[in-house]
Design a protein that fits this description.
The chain is α+β, with helices and mostly antiparallel strands. It is built from 1 helix and 3 strands; from the N terminus they run βββα.
Length: 98
């Protein structure tokens, strides 16, 4: 039985254009870019791209980025597309005691 290795994600290093005026070399710098594809409970998928992120990020901040991309995707969708179920962003898991 042959087992194929899983598809691994690779780190993309994108050359920095050197813009922005701050020090930093002749444009040969590398910028780390993280890309996340998130499948939402209503079946819609959004892509969040974080160019040169900080070493740490609060989960609430990441969720805010997902919400923003979701809203942009909803606005950009054509009226002829099938309407997706709305998401309840405020719901949480309730744990029963006992």
């Amino acid at each position: 039985m042959d087992v194929k290795p899983g598809r691994k994600r690779r780190l993309e290093l994108v050359p920095h254009d050197g813009g922005g005026g701050g020090g930093g070399g002749e444009g040969g710098e590398r910028v780390v870019v993280y890309k996340f594809k998130i499948l939402l409970p209503n079946g819609m998928a959004v892509i969040v791209i974080l160019p040169d992120p900080k070493p740490e990020m609060w989960v609430q901040d990441f969720i805010g980025l997902v919400k923003r991309e979701y809203t942009l995707a909803q606005r950009g969708s054509s009226p002829s597309m099938k309407k997706k179920r709305t998401l309840n962003w405020e719901s949480g898991r309730r744990v029963r005691g006992g």
